[in-house]
Every structure is written in structure tokens, then in C-alpha cells.
Amino acid sequence: MYESYYGFKEKPFQLSPDPRFFFASNHHQRALSYLQYGLDQGEGFIVITGPIGTGKTTIARNLLNNINDANIVAVQLVTTILNPHELLALVAAEFQIEVEGSSKAELLQGIEQFLIRLNQQGKRALLIVDEAQNLPSETVEELRMLSNFQLDNKPLIQSFLLGQEELKGIIQAPDMEQFRQRIIASAHLKPLSEAEVKEYIDHRLQQANCNKEHVFDEGAYAVIHDKTGGVPRKINIFVDRILLFGFLEDLNVIDVEAVNQVAEEMEIELTGSLHAKPISESTATQTITTEIEAASLDSIKSTLKEVEDILDTTIKEKVKMARYVDKLLKQKNKELSQSK
């Protein structure tokens, strides 16, 4: 869509985590350093927490992408609410461990034998558990029990836990003392500062091989930070939409006015729809009559104004979509004529 217009070789603000687009803010770099430190230690738990969309999964994938040690066999779990038995089954499946039965004892035996074979080959296992806040405390405790698998006083498996802020509450519970004593490092991710938002956006544009010197006006970055709170995932969604808007409006440089207009459009899309419960015709007539009798003239005018605004926005969106389709058709015709 807008990629060729702005000279990108790919979309710079995709939602799916991509290690190539990893941006090392101060907090993200510290978290990554803790993960790397834990990896070098080869034992204990590393815990990374943070609000939704702050980049925990991206950090994990960046770490996996940059592991140069062929002796580390790593898998990543994206968990839901699992009991201890289900967790063990998932661990066995991700490590591709063949287990004869499905009982907990058989799963544990199969996992232990697999880890011993890895150790004999000079290798060790790394388990990265994403969305760990979904795990009940007894399942987190099962992870601790897995860390008890040792050979020659060396742990056979290591675990990293990444989760939303609720994970801290699970770990801080009174009955989790033994687990807390196994944590060798932890970090909490925070949203990006205003300066980091600018660096983040410019970094992703550069990774997409942007050939323009300026895509955003300097003042636009502050508005983007204000509207997204500095949360990377929200920035991706918002800026992607802004770039589409810039393409449709033939903007060479996106300014504050454009950013505010997109923010207003997105706010209306999310919160401006009308919701009504189905009611019978007689009830509807009675309700309308009662409301008209009770409502003041100013209230009726206000309601009509709101409806008018919503209709106006809908018409604008229809026009914009028509322009967008027309623009795509012209672009396709141009490409076809050039290929002849």
C-alpha cells in the first residue's frame, strides 16, 4: 500500500514481533542484558515483566535469534492457563520428546532422560515461557521442580519467564518463597519516553530501508507519544495508520495536524458507534414519546448534533476509501503499462 509511496522495502510497523526491528531502549537493553547474563550463568530463573505491548516477546525472540551457542537447545512456550500436568506435556511436545505414556510420572521421566542425553552431548536446555502471568502458582512451582533436574551438580534445564504485571503478584505470594530464591535476575519493562518514541520510529523506518530524509515533522513525534503512552505495540498500530493516511492524502511529510486527525478518526472508530437493544414496536413508540416529553430542546439538539457528526465522519470515511481504491487502481495500471 503505502510502502512504495514512502520508499519502504517492507512495512516498518507490523504487529508481529521481528528481531530485526528490535529497539534497545534503556529498559529493554537492561532486560536483554539480564537475559544474556542468565544465559551465561546456565542456572536459575530470569523474570521479565511489563505492561501489555511493551516488547517482552520481541526481547525473547531477539535473544533466541542471537544465540550463537550451538550447545543451547531453546524452545519458547506461549502459555495459557495450564495445570502442572498440561505444562509438562507442552514442554515435552516443544522439545519433541517421545514419551511412552501420558501420566505425569512418565512425562517427568521422559523429560529427565532427554535432558541427560543433552548433557552427555555437551548441550543444555533453555525454556522460555511467554505470557507466564497465565500460569497458576502450582504450575509455576512445577517449573521450579524441573530446575531440580541436575547431573554432577549442574542444572540440566534453565527457564526464563516473561509476563504481564500480574506475574509479579504470583511470584510474590507467600507460598512462592522457594521459587523466589531461584530467581537470579529480574527486570520490569516500561513504556518509551518521548525522546525514545522518536528514536523508535526512526529506527523502524531505517530498518525498512526508508529512502526519505524526513517522513515525520519534528512536532509529530510528541503527539504520537502522547496518544500512545509510549507503548511500542500501540505505536505500531497508530503509526501504521498514520502512514496509510499520509499515502491517501499525498503527504510528503506528516505533520501534527495529520497525526491529530488520524487519532480523532481512530477514537471515533473505537468508541463512536451507536449501540441499541432490540425492542418491540409498541415499547419503542412509548419510549420515544416519553423521552421526547421529558427531554429539553437543548438535549434534543445535542443528540441530533452527535448523529450529524457520526454521519459526517462515515461519509468522509466512504470518500476516503473510494479515493484509496482509485489510487490503487491507478498504481496498478501504471505498473502494467511499465511492464509492457
UniProtKB/TrEMBL annotation:
InterPro entries attached to this UniProt entry: AAA+_ATPase, AAA_22, ExeA_AAA_ATPase_DNA-bind, P-loop_NTPase, XrtA-assoc_ATPase-like
Span of domain AAA+ ATPase: 42-211
One family name in Pfam for this protein: AAA_22
Species, as recorded: Thalassotalea eurytherma
Protein name: ATPase
Highest taxon of the lineage: Bacteria
Family annotation (SUPFAM superfamilies): P-loop containing nucleoside triphosphate hydrolases (SSF52540)
Transmembrane segments: none
